[in-house]
């Protein structure tokens, strides 16, 4: 029971960040589980299984609050599921840690770009969110999320915000699309999740379900400039941490 309460706290904290900023649930949970000694495969499988429930509640909350753009949603979810399926099938013989430095380097650059746009904003412009997510973006994000234990939100949120899509729309749409990516990965990796993972999955799921509606409401009320700044800061911290662990 003590371990379950710890996993509940991890899931709650991770979902508050993910639901409000549209990213970092998988990365946060996976990093904490690995620091506790969990094997990488077990950590990744547990997180994706828990994300099925948390992303469902989070996505439904965002949809009800009007944070989801339908065109952008379909341009993310269809290639995202394809990429996630490919990544899940490859995870058995591809070491996801080998590509983490490349992903972290990319996120570091995008995080800097988001911060630059936040503090030196350009004049407002009208954007069509559905036209700003080419299929390869969702495909790559789904693939990296499946083999690396996270990255769906980090890649999509930072890229779309950097292109000028309003943060609230980005956060809500990316969270809604993540449900289908999580279902795909969890279904294909379920054989990895044995009885020893049930306390992890249960704790992460309970904590995430508690935090999901609160985080969705926060995304609606947080000012766009503040959301962009927080997004850039979170990406920088995560990317620097990932690079440091990969290079040591």
TrEMBL record:
The keyword Cell division does not apply. Pfam families: TauE. The keyword Ribosomal protein does not apply. InterPro entries: TM_pro_TauE-like, TSUP/Inactive_protease-like. It comes from the Bacteria. It is found in: Cell membrane; Membrane. It is a multi-pass membrane protein. Keywords: Cell membrane, Membrane, Transmembrane, Transmembrane helix. The chain crosses the membrane at residues 72-94, 101-119, 139-162, 174-193, 199-219, 226-247. Belongs to the 4-toluene sulfonate uptake permease (TSUP) (TC 2.A.102) family. This is Probable membrane transporter protein. It comes from Pseudomarimonas salicorniae.
């Amino acid at each position: 029971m003590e371990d379950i309460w710890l996993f509940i706290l991890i899931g709650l904290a991770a979902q508050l960040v993910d639901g409000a900023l549209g990213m970092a649930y998988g990365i946060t949970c996976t990093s904490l589980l690995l620091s506790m000694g969990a094997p990488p495969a077990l950590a990744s499988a547990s997180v994706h299984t828990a994300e099925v429930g948390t992303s469902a509640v989070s996505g439904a909350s965002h949809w009800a609050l009007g944070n989801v753009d339908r065109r952008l949603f379909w341009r993310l979810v269809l290639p995202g599921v394809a990429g996630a399926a490919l990544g899940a099938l490859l995870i058995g013989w591809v070491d996801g840690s080998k590509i983490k430095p490349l992903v972290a380097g990319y996120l570091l650059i995008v995080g800097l770009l988001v911060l630059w746009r936040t503090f030196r904003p350009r004049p407002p412009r009208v954007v069509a969110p559905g036209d700003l997510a080419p299929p390869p973006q969702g495909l790559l994000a789904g693939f990296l999320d499946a083999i690396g234990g996270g990255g769906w939100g980090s890649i999509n949120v930072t890229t779309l915000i950097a292109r000028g899509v309003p943060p609230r729309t980005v956060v809500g749409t990316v969270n809604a699309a993540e449900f289908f990516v999580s279902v795909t990965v969890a279904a294909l990796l379920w054989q990895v999740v044995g009885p020893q993972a049930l306390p992890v999955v249960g704790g992460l799921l309970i904590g995430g379900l508690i935090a999901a509606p609160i985080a969705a409401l926060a995304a609606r009320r947080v000012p766009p400039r503040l959301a962009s700044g927080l997004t850039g800061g979170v990406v920088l911290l995560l990317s620097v941490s990932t690079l440091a662990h990969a290079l040591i």
